[in-house]
Design brief:
NDH-1 is composed of 14 different subunits. Subunits NuoA, H, J, K, L, M, N constitute the membrane sector of the complex. This protein is mainly alpha-helical and 100 residues long. The protein has three helices and no strands.
């Protein structure tokens, strides 16, 4: 069994990398991937604490987060495709208004 501290360290490392990507990058696609890293780090911590406390609720929360993330990605990619068709850019700074 993996010690809890290793799982927490992995979750924190992924969270820091994801937060850095969201805050520092200007490409919308990279920002979306960084958000996925943030959510996956939370999933790792949910599962690690669930295993540590011998409770299955951490896994259930992780499954809910994965389902919500899948819906979020579907909507975000739809908006991204519409944005590329209208503006021909993926930079966050170039997109200031969402009206067509």
């Amino acid at each position: 069994m993996v010690p809890l501290s290793w799982s927490i360290l992995l979750g924190v490392a992924l969270f820091v990398i994801g937060a850095g990507g969201v805050l520092l990058r200007r490409n919308i696609l990279i920002v979306l991937m960084s958000l996925e890293l943030l959510l996956n780090s939370v999933n790792i911590n949910f599962i690690a604490f669930g295993q540590y406390y011998d409770d299955f609720r951490g896994q259930i929360f992780a499954i809910f987060v994965i389902a919500i993330t899948a819906a979020e990605v579907a909507v975000a990619l739809g908006i991204l495709v519409a944005l590329v068709r209208n503006k021909s850019t993926l930079k966050v700074d170039d997109v200031t208004i969402m009206k067509g």
